[in-house]
């Protein structure tokens, strides 16, 4: 009884903090935990008339069905390839940009760069996709310029060999600034006296960056890296909106990922909700496994993990 009284006492003492966090808790309960109820569809032959509980249990039949489909394995392969590409290309760039911006001494110029880099993050992928279509499409600015100088027209949006590069480039342009802001915030928390002491000892900017800034930033980098690993199977480590608004049947072989595959299979083709849910559960299990594995590996290497 005393233990429960102690818990209630702490709640009363910090009631305003709990009030502030309550909308977030309600959001997670409504939109993150309650939908887990629908995972049963992965093990059922769903029938709208019977509802979820009334539909027939089919065990692992939905999983066996999707594992037999070539389209599923194509989407799975594309998801892995795009996620690895994002990790190798997009993850390091904000770190480098943050380290370089930290060396800019003029406050006005530094803020200008931050605004320029961060602004694209607040544009929706619908807008960004529209910009890309207007520039790179069949009747876009690029083709008008090529025609003007007498070169052959091209449509990069329907070329499978260049489409992934287009994904990486547009995602990097849009979200690089947001990652940079996170790392700059971590750098701002470094004790300034460390730089002063290093400067007195004769350390230059490069040495200070290498021996003070980077070691202090490493824990933030590791945590964001773990989160990125745990997001591998979710839209190829990026966003569903990007690929959905850019891809087309001509690039399905290179760009169709599990999320777009599930969407198209469920709402366009009209296939079973059970098999689509099975795909979602499959990728969630892999994401969870990768997250736990990356966290354990980070701890074994002496770094801070998520928990």
From TrEMBL:
<feature type="transmembrane region" description="Helical">
    <location>
        <begin position="80"/>
        <end position="101"/>
    </location>
</feature>
<dbReference type="GO" id="GO:0005886">
    <property type="term" value="C:plasma membrane"/>
</dbReference>
<protein>
    <submittedName>
        <fullName>Sugar ABC transporter permease</fullName>
    </submittedName>
</protein>
<dbReference type="InterPro" id="IPR035906">
    <property type="entry name" value="MetI-like_sf"/>
</dbReference>
<dbReference type="Pfam" id="PF00528">
    <property type="entry name" value="BPD_transp_1"/>
</dbReference>
<feature type="transmembrane region" description="Helical">
    <location>
        <begin position="273"/>
        <end position="292"/>
    </location>
</feature>
<keyword id="KW-1133">Transmembrane helix</keyword>
<dbReference type="GO" id="GO:0055085">
    <property type="term" value="P:transmembrane transport"/>
</dbReference>
<feature type="transmembrane region" description="Helical">
    <location>
        <begin position="122"/>
        <end position="142"/>
    </location>
</feature>
<feature type="transmembrane region" description="Helical">
    <location>
        <begin position="176"/>
        <end position="197"/>
    </location>
</feature>
<keyword id="KW-1003">Cell membrane</keyword>
<feature type="transmembrane region" description="Helical">
    <location>
        <begin position="16"/>
        <end position="36"/>
    </location>
</feature>
<feature type="domain" description="ABC transmembrane type-1">
    <location>
        <begin position="76"/>
        <end position="294"/>
    </location>
</feature>
<keyword id="KW-0812">Transmembrane</keyword>
<keyword id="KW-0472">Membrane</keyword>
<keyword id="KW-0813">Transport</keyword>
<dbReference type="InterPro" id="IPR000515">
    <property type="entry name" value="MetI-like"/>
</dbReference>
<feature type="transmembrane region" description="Helical">
    <location>
        <begin position="209"/>
        <end position="230"/>
    </location>
</feature>
<dbReference type="InterPro" id="IPR050809">
    <property type="entry name" value="UgpAE/MalFG_permease"/>
</dbReference>
<comment type="similarity">
    <text>Belongs to the binding-protein-dependent transport system permease family.</text>
</comment>
């Amino acid at each position: 009884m005393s233990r429960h009284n102690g818990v209630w006492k702490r709640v009363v003492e910090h009631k305003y903090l709990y009030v502030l966090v309550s909308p977030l808790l309600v959001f997670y309960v409504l939109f993150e935990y309650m939908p887990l109820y629908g995972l049963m569809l992965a093990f059922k032959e769903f029938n709208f008339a019977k509802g979820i509980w009334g539909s027939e249990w089919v065990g692992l039949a939905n999983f066996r069905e999707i594992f037999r489909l070539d389209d599923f394995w194509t989407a799975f392969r594309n998801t892995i390839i795009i996620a690895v590409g994002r990790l190798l290309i997009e993850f390091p760039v904000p770190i480098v940009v943050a380290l370089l911006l930290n060396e800019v001494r003029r406050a006005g110029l530094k803020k200008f760069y931050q605004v320029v880099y961060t602004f694209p993050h607040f544009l929706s992928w619908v807008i960004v996709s529209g910009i890309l279509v207007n520039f790179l499409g069949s009747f876009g600015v690029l083709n008008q310029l090529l025609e003007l100088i007498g070169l052959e027209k091209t449509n990069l949006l329907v070329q499978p060999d260049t489409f992934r590069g287009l994904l990486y480039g547009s995602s990097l342009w849009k979200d690089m600034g947001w990652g940079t802001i996170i790392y700059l915030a971590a750098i701002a928390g470094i004790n300034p006296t460390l730089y002063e002491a290093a400067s007195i000892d004769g350390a230059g900017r490069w040495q200070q960056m290498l021996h003070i800034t980077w070691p202090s930033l490493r824990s933030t980098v590791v945590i964001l890296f773990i989160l990125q690993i745990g997001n591998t199977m979710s839209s190829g480590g990026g966003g569903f909106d990007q690929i959905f608004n850019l891809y087309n049947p001509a690039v399905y072989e290179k760009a169709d990922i599990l999320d777009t595959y599930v969407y198209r299979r469920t709402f366009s083709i009209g296939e079973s909700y059970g098999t689509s849910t099975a795909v979602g559960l499959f990728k969630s299990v892999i994401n969870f496994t990768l997250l736990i594995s990356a966290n354990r590996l980070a701890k074994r290497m002496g770094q801070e993990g998520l928990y």
